[in-house]
Amino acid sequence: MSLSTSVRKGLPIVKTDGEEWLLSSQPGLSVVIPIYNEVENLPHLIHAIALSLQDNQIDSYEIVCVDDGSSDGSAELLKQLARERSDLRAVILRRNYGQTAAMSAGFHHARGKVIVTLDGDLQNDPKDIPLLLSKLDDGYDLVSGWRKERQDAKVTRLLPSRIANWLIGKVTGVKLHDYGCSLKAYRSELVADLNLYGELHRFLPALAFIEGARITEIPVSHYPRRYGRSKYGLDRTFRVLMDLITIAFIKTFLTRPMHVFGFFGLFSTLAGIAIGAYLTFLKYGLQEGIRDRPLLIFAVVLILAGVQLFCFGLLAEMLMRTYHEAQGRPIYRVRELLGSDSGKTVS
Ligand code: UDP
Ligand code: MG
To answer: Is the pTM for the entire model greater than 0.70?
Structure first.
């Protein structure tokens, strides 16, 4: 059975006292939306999502809205809507933590087999959700939206975003046109493994790629904001850059840090020792003075830096082991298990 058929199939909806309840404890689809001061958008958004899913015979779904400490009454409206609708679940955070944390909270509370994320400001079109789902059917683990005709300010938003996308592609090796697009679909096992920090939600494809996911993108619609204001400006570029460095670090060093640090450490120490030996020969062999030679300082720095890099590599190696073992994280990811008995056999 294909993924989107199983998403559609879901358990029946029963009506009790005019209220509808989904019987399924695991819906096929969870739509996760971070909400920060989007009170005017909320009712339109939820209506549009429900309409798009029902039009495509997707019955087994839930909408998980995470209120990220809004101050404009979004939380109150969300609570009221969640009481009225059986397809809506509200997660109200204690304060404003930022979009990444809000999405992470959504992932933790989502129960669906497939998770779709989108913005709460109606800039994404819920009509694109079925397109993403059918792409997952083709065997992908993550389908990212590409806002081909993006409706945001040119200089402050589009330009930095272009540069960022290019850079992220170079560093991570995952070539997508539009990392920043929130409209994405994931198989839920994938996000269950990912821990998000900083502004890392835009690097989800890169993190997923490190976890061995199959990734693709499709063009999606994008509209200007109708209500409310964007929560970001140019300052985001800086934070994204810092996160990019973290990702590059994780990607290269996560499993074998000593391979990298150890190599540079050894290289630097050996170079320092070689220069030192040359200077020793000059002093004692040729009786030349070496006190005022910059090369002497260079040799000392190389040896010191080399030893430090080496120790740093060893520490990183210990940290990496703690990281993997404390979470019971294997260093590999299995896509499928085949065979009559996929469990362990005794003796
Ligand atoms: N958002 C959030 N917490 C924040 C900032 C933003 O949950 O601290 C939500 C916001 O409500 C919206 C989404 O993240 O649903 C994207 O924000 P925005 O539309 O301002 O970003 P842009 O589309 O301008 O990049
Ligand atoms: Mg927006």
So the answer is: yes
